[in-house]
């Protein structure tokens, strides 16, 4: 594996993992208060576009990282959009 692939995989792991703490926090606290619907909608859409780009370029790190990120962002976004806007934004 060449250094560029390793660099791409490292970037993929870091950017994908960055969504995990937010997802766990939302699940643990059962609140999406303070989460921007617009930001997560944009992140989700950007992830989908990156997946398409990765498929076109036949670049597995881009496809995998953005596939996982899009799923995480999509879950957070859907929870935010469907949350009851109270102190506890959604019920488990």
Estimated helix fraction: over 70%
- The value of Rg in angstroms is 15 Å
Architecture, according to CATH? Up-down Bundle
Q: How many helical stretches?
A: 4
For the biggest sheet, the summary is: none
Rounded mean pLDDT is: 84
N-to-C CA distance: 44 Å
What is the string of helix and strand elements?
Answer: HHHH
The best one-word shape is elongated
Share in β-strands: under 5%
CATH top level class name: Mainly Alpha
Judged by helices, strands and strand pairing, the structural class is mainly alpha
* Number of E-type strands: 0
Q: Which consecutive residue ranges, at least 5 long each, have pLDDT under 50? A: 87-92
CATH topology: Monooxygenase
Number of domains: 1
Task: Give an overview in words.
The chain is mostly helical and 92 residues long. The protein has a single domain (3-82), classed as Monooxygenase (Up-down Bundle), CATH 1.20.1280.290. 75% of the residues lie in helices and 0% in strands. The chain is built from four helices and no strands. It has helices spanning 3-17, 20-29, 37-57, 60-82.
């Amino acid at each position: 594996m060449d250094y560029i692939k390793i660099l791409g995989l490292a970037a993929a792991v870091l950017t994908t993992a960055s969504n995990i703490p937010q997802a766990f926090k939302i699940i643990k606290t059962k609140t999406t208060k303070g989460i921007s619907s617009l930001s997560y909608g944009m992140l989700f859409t950007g992830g989908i576009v990156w997946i398409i780009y990765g498929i076109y370029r036949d670049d597995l790190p881009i496809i995998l990282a953005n596939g996982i990120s899009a799923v995480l962002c999509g879950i957070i976004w859907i929870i935010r959009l469907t949350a009851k806007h109270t102190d506890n934004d959604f019920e488990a």
